Amino acid sequence: MIRKTVTDAREALQGVEDGMTFMLGGFGLCGIPENAIAELVRLGITDITCISNNAGVDDFGLGLLLQKHQIKKMISSYVGENDEFERQMLSGELEVELTPQGTLAEKCRAAQAGFPAFYTPAGYGTEVAQGKETREFNGKMYVLEEAFEADFAFVKAWKGDEAGNLIFKGTARNFNPCMSGAANITVAEVEELLPAGSLDPNQIHVPGIFVQRIFQGEHYEKRIEQRTVLKRT
Amino acid sequence: MANFQISSLSDSQINTMLDKNGIAKRIAQEVKDGYYVNLGIGIPTLVANFVRNDINVEFQSENGVLGMGPFPYEGEEDADIINAGKQTITTLPGASFFDSATSFGMIRGQHVDLTILGAMEVAENGDIANWKIPGKMVKGMGGAMDLVASAENIIVAMMHTNKVGKSKLLKRCTLPLTGVGCVTKIVTNLAVLEVTSKGFMLLERAPGVNVDDIKMATEGTLVVEGNIPEMAL
Q1: Contact residues, A window 20-79, toward B, CB-based 8 Å cutoff
Q2: How many Å apart are CA B227 and CA B233, to the nearest integer?
Q3: What is the mean pLDDT of residues B21-45?
Q4: Calpha distance A215→B23 (Å, rounded)
Q5: Chain A residues with CB inside 8 Å of B63's CB?
Q6: What is the pLDDT of residue A18?
Q7: B73: chain A residues, CB-CB within 8 Å
Q8: Looking at the annotation, which residues of B are catalytic?
Q9: Number of helices (H) and strands (E), helices first, in chain B?
Q10: What is the end-to-end Cα distance of chain A in Å, rounded?
Q11: Residue pLDDT, tens place only, A150-179
Q12: Most buried residue, A89, B12, B177, B198, by CB count within 10 Å?
């Protein structure tokens, strides 16, 4: 067994520097690497490029990095729900590259799986395809999209083991598996870190080979963006 | 697997010119037994309320769930189980969770039978614009470009005209496109229309709405052949 465990976020994020490109898992505030984000805020590194489906809210998730002006560029599919983001984008402080959500996921998976690029129908005929190679296959048009290149991927799982194997819960899975192994170093934080052998190999969602460092996170807030409930009658 | 009720309303709310629930109710008739359906945010979400009880349908949400159920009861909400609108949801028997790349594989690979989404504009050639208004804050396309580029059966749910009374069914879209030549059917507060090589083919009228009303509200080419029936709701 190859051990991937580190003690905490501080050790897990060793080597992060100004100007790096990071992938961050999560959809909205669901399944985001809360501990890694907190550590990035503490380290105060700047000029970061973040590949993340969303940009958090004003006071949580990536919003915490935006507040401190640590982010230079966001690559996302949807960035609503964040006033500070809007302010920085409109003032030109923050660069934003909007990418269709499926393309965003596939650009991560391609990086993980060793594909330099792939063709997708998404965005053909729109401004997303401008400047990109297009090609017809079986009578339908496709756009060539390139794999991402990132220095670190920060992912969050429900359970993990010393070997770096990961299991997710519910829709907190989202981008986390595609980003695992898609950057030079993948840091996984988990709610529960278990000894090797504790997890059933049949149930692993992300094999440990895609993870370089794993630690048990703490103080998960798991904030809900839209609490929609039914009244009991 | 069965449908579910998010909000309650009475049939008396549907009279002349459909409201949002009326549009959703008419679209629900397009949902067939055995369909996997992706519902966009807004009016499309309401469609789930009106799907017949005697057919089996599964709702997909692109953040990574198939077999989406109603909102949870108060106190049972789980931050790890949300839909693409970031709302807390539940799952029904037979449900599954998956990562974002797999989710868009289902969409791009045409495993999802029906996509229902909103729009700002639809053109008579099937082009759709629903993600960006130049000069206004752009939140992003989310998964819309992947959905419209891939799905074989795309129904647009929208009001026939915008807030200032201008037609949303156009010869050509004026806003930045989300996808080209992809919309198959449109259900508005006035009519059901099909996109054909001749233009918008009028299929049905909303209760109390006549063909001239629809002609007046449609900027694109409206094809009227024979007697146009009133929607059966």
Answers
A1: 27-31, 53, 76-79
A2: 18
A3: 95
A4: 49
A5: 27-28, 30, 171, 174
A6: 98
A7: 229-232
A8: 62
A9: 5, 13
A10: 53
A11: 999 999 999 999 999 999 999 999 999 999
A12: B177
In terms of pLDDT, which residue wins out, A90 or A7?
A7
Q: How far apart are CA B82 and CA B96, in angstroms?
A: 13
Contact B146 A102 (CB under 8 A): yes
B126 shares contact with chain A (CB less than 8 Å) = no
Give A233 or B62, the one with higher predicted confidence: B62
Chain A 188-217, residues with CB within 8 Å of chain B CB atoms: 205
- Phi and psi, residue A63, nearest 5°: -55, -30
Pairing of strands B191-196, B199-205: antiparallel
Looking at the complex, report in whole angstroms how far the Cα of residue A110 sits from the nearest Cα belonging to chain B: 10
Q: Which of B4, B146, B150, B175 to mutate to test the interface with A (most CBs of A within 10 A)?
A: B146
Which residues, other chains included, contact B89 with Cβ-Cβ below 8 Å and sequence gap of 6+? A228, B61, B65, B68, B69, B70, B71, B72, B81, B82, B83
Q: Name the minimum distance, in Å, from the CA of B5 to any CA of chain A.
A: 10
Q: Number of Cβ pairs closer than 8 Å across A and B? A: 179
pTM of the model: 0.95
- Residues listed for chain B: 233
Tokens read off for B39: 């519902």
State how far the Cα of A131 lies from the Cα of A110, in Å rounded to an integer. Answer: 20
CA distances in angstroms from A198 to A152, A168, A172, B100, B231, listed in the order given: 27, 15, 21, 27, 59
Q: How many angstroms from the chain centroid is the CA of residue B122?
A: 13
Report pLDDT for A3: 98
Question: What is the rounded distance in angstroms from the CA atom of residue B107 to the CA atom of residue B142?
Answer: 13
Q: pLDDT digits over B200-232, tens only?
A: 999 999 999 999 999 999 999 999 999 999 999
Pairwise CB contact (< 8 Å): A171 & B64? yes
Residue in this structure with the two tokens 């194997």, named with its chain if needed: A165
| Residue, of A156 and B152, whose pLDDT is higher | A156
- Nearest alpha carbon to residue B129 among B78, B77, B190, B170: B170
Q: Does B136 touch chain A (CB under 8 A)?
A: no
pLDDT at B9 over 80: no
pLDDT in tens, A72-128: 999 999 998 888 998 898 899 999 999 999 999 999 999 999 999 999 999 999 999
Contact assignment for A170 to B149 by CB distance below 8 Å: no
Q: Is A29 helix (H, G, I), strand (E, B) or coil?
A: coil
CB contact (8 A) between residue A171 and residue B180: no
Question: CA–CA separation, B55 vs B41, rounded Å?
Answer: 23
